[in-house]
Amino acid sequence: MDRFPQAADVDFHSPLDLSKAAAAVLDDEGRVSGWGAAAQRLLGHSPDDVLGRPATRLLAVGPGRRPSALCTAHRPRNAVLDLRCRDGRTLRAAVTFSPLAHRGAAATVVVAADLAALRGWETQLALLQGLATESSVGLTVFGTDGRVVWGNVSTDRELAGIAQYVGRPAADLFPEGEFISRHHPPDEDQVMEHVLKTGEPVIGMHYRGRAPADPVREHVWSCSYHRLVDARGEPLGLFEESLDITERYRAQERLSLLVRAGKRIGASLDVRRTAAELADVAVPQLADEVLVDLPPAVIEGRQPPTGSAPGHSLLRMHGRTPEEFRTSPVSYPPSSPQALSLATGRPVIGAAPPGAAPAGPHSCLFVPLLTRDAVLGLVTFRRSGNPDPFGSEERTLAVELAERAAVGIDNARRYTSQHAAALVLQRSLLPQHLPEQSAVDVAYRYLPADSRVGVGGDWFDVIPLSGARVGLTVGDVVGHGVHAAATMGRLRATVRTLALLDLDPAELLTRLDDLVTQDSESGADDEPGDRALGVTCLYAVYDPVSGRCVWASAGHPPPIVADSGGTVAPSAPAPGPPLGLGGLPYENVELRLPDGSVMAFFTDGVVEDRRTGVDSGIDRLAHVLTWQRCPVEELCDRALATMPAGPQADDATLLLVRTRRLDGDRVTDLELPPDPAVVADARALTERQLDAWGLSELSFTAALVVSELVTNGIRYATGPVVLRLIRDRSLLCEVSDGAHTAPHLRRARRDDEGGRGLFLVAQMSQRWGTRYTASGKTIWAELPIP
Fold first, then answer.
1. Which of 168, 202, 201 is nearest to 186 (CA)?
2. DSSP annotation of 529
3. Which terminus of the chain has a lower count of CB atoms within 10 Å, N or C?
4. Mean pLDDT, rounded, for 558-563
5. CA dist 715 to 206, 678, 710, 755, 765, Å?
6. Which residue, among 462, 520, 438, has the nearest Cα to 731 in the 3D structure?
7. Could you report the per-residue pLDDT of 22-40, keeping only the tens digit for each?
8. Could you tell me how far CA 99 lies from the centroid of its own chain?
9. Contact assessment for residue 140 and residue 155, using Cβ atoms and an 8 Å cutoff
10. Are 298 and 327 in contact (CB under 8 A)?
């Protein structure tokens, strides 16, 4: 069997070996008396050509020593001679003359070989000697039983003497070592058994351990295993070649650490998590422990202190999750290495303090967390298990990790500050406490799409209107963050202002659309307007006297209504584009709601489900409303419980309204002809009704207000005048007529005979106003009930 099937020209026999070299025998007169087959192959001369002839005939013309002198020597002599081949070539050969003690026909044995082949063999031999004595690659030979047979000088140095390990198993060389390469057998015995059994080499495995010659420091070697066989192909054992790659391995580890740091540090936008991410990345490759100390201002999202390094007022971060997070105060004396690092903005290496416990840190590296304009804090890298002190390359690595962490912490601090500002803004813009209404019972839920951000563009409102009516609105600004919250607040305030003008829903949305369009067209190029964001809105007015609800939508989902019998159905859609697009008019939709009906106003986030679609979400909400006899707060909780688990795609706002009707005995209507004489009848009716309601103490004030309102209606309007009294949380006095001209409050001069009526009404009521109806207008005044 060929020992080297992939390298057939490898031969470690010397060309002067008798089994290969050209051999001849000379007699004592220098004539050829013996000629071997190898000599014939080397020079081409047959025995008949050379036997009995002088050996000098085989020499080529040229310088060189004569064979007679070499033959007469008393000991073996070597020479380089130019020999003549039968084909005329000249062969430079290495020749050895070995004289025999007995002289005669066989006086000298001559052995010759091609000089070039000999030099090649000597080079191979020098290579083997170099590997054994000078190479930095460790070579160790093991027998078929896995025990040490031989090791070169490099192995001898690492083991502090190979002789003591000869005959011992491989496991004794590095008792605590381990393979750290994957996809290979886990221990050396299995690796060697695999190589011996299959003949397949195992190349480039990484092995980590402590060499007997350097038991303090941990090293990493690249190891390969090859089988050794004899000339017949039978296994003799195997050899291991090992190269110490500790520095290269550490450099690769540092590079991979930086790659991990780029992916992980600062991804959370949370100061506490960023500090924990730094520790996760650096331990255990760079340090055994990492401590992060930050000023309280940075943790809270405020501007870091300026003017001096914050060495006296830091908090040490503990915990890697919000549940585990805590802080402990820490301060550094001015002469400490920590204070020096903070003051200079440079890393400082510190040794273990005198008398420190053996298990404590023996080497510390202090690195400041720097931004462009401030010192954010300090990172401490500690080593206790790793005996190596921090070197220059590791210090550079620590600085780069600290720079990445500083950027992440500063971004998290800025985000925390902006997040807090956005939350304050949104909370100030959304209703904190909905006013109690006789017309409706209300419950609501607001869930931002990102629970971490907590800021979205949804809004809702409940607006008290005249005549015991109530305005209900819900809207959605696409997007999240401060800009969406600011747009939401501006639109909510605008809707409330327009609602207090007693506009009907379609008219209110038309006015709101005009304002949004103007705002979009006049906005700066670098500031996205409401058109770019996308805004939808629904506005409804409910009248508890008539049970009538009128609503209009600007691209918003219609409400879902459950009547008092439990029948649930979505309202008919009201076509209308989102705000700011224009083009189509807005239309009113009118509903007649029985007492105790429940209306659900919602944004897309409540019913959106990527897996099943919006219709499925509407069906879920409609099913919840079949439980309409439950309190509306409970219905809100049931509705949110049916939403799909996991992160939301959009903000979710739900407003549930249970309607109430005012009893007939709390409302009085009186139609009056356009005759000034009926003013007295209106006063009398008011006094009688208030007496029946037990509100006699309001009789004088109410009669005066009614008198002025009826008088004003009869004087300036045409057709009949309708007086309505409503007993609610306050006393409402309303006078309706067919004129569309609204009266104006003014201050009458001394000589004016009129013009004081509305002034008196304004002074004697807590609120008053005018609203337009399909047939004219209504002037109303609200008097507080004592």
1. 202
2. -
3. C
4. 91
5. 105, 12, 8, 12, 22
6. 438
7. 999 988 888 999 999 999 9
8. 87
9. yes
10. no
Residue 455: pLDDT band (50, 70, 90) is low
Pairing mode, if any, of strands 90-99 and 108-114? antiparallel
> Phi and psi for 106 in degrees, rounded to 5?
-125, 95
Give 320's pLDDT tier (boundaries 50, 70, 90).
Answer: low
For residue 728, is pLDDT > 50?
yes
CB 618 within 8 A of CB 612: no
Letter for the amino acid at 453? V
Closest CA to 239 of 154, 179, 175, 157: 154
Cα separation of 405 and 389, whole Å? 23
CB-CB contact of 692 with 639 (8 Å): no
Closest CA to 177 of 157, 203, 148, 207: 207
Instruction: Summarize pLDDT for 120-149 with one digit per residue, the tens.
Output: 888 888 888 888 888 889 999 999 999 999
Q: What is the dihedral of CA 597, 603, 607, 613, to 10 degrees?
A: 130
Q: Single out the residue of 564, 437, 579 nearest to residue 516, CA to CA.
A: 579
Please check whether residue 481 is in contact with residue 557, taking contact to mean a CB–CB distance below 8 angstroms.
no
List, in order, residues 6 or more apart from 511 with CB less than 8 Å away: 498, 503
Q: Where are the beta strands (DSSP E) in 404-533?
A: 440-447, 456-464, 470-480
- Report whether 706 contacts 697 (CB < 8 A): no
Q: Is the dihedral of CA 420, 423, 429, 435 positive or negative?
A: negative
Q: What is the pLDDT of residue 103?
A: 64
Angle between the N-to-C axes of helices 482-499 and 392-429, in degrees from 0 to 180, rounded to the nearest 10: 0
Amino acid making up residue 280: D
Of 176-180, 500-504, 755-759, the poorest mean pLDDT is in 755-759
699-727: per-residue pLDDT in tens?
Answer: 899 999 998 888 888 887 777 889 999 99
Q: What is the SS3 string spanning 182-206?
A: CCCCCCHHHHHHHHHHHCCCEEEEE
Phi, psi of 493, deg, nearest 5: -65, -35
**108: amino acid identity, one letter:** T
Nearest to 510 by CA among 539, 484, 489: 539
pLDDT at residue number 367: 94
Return the SS3 of 761.
Answer: helix
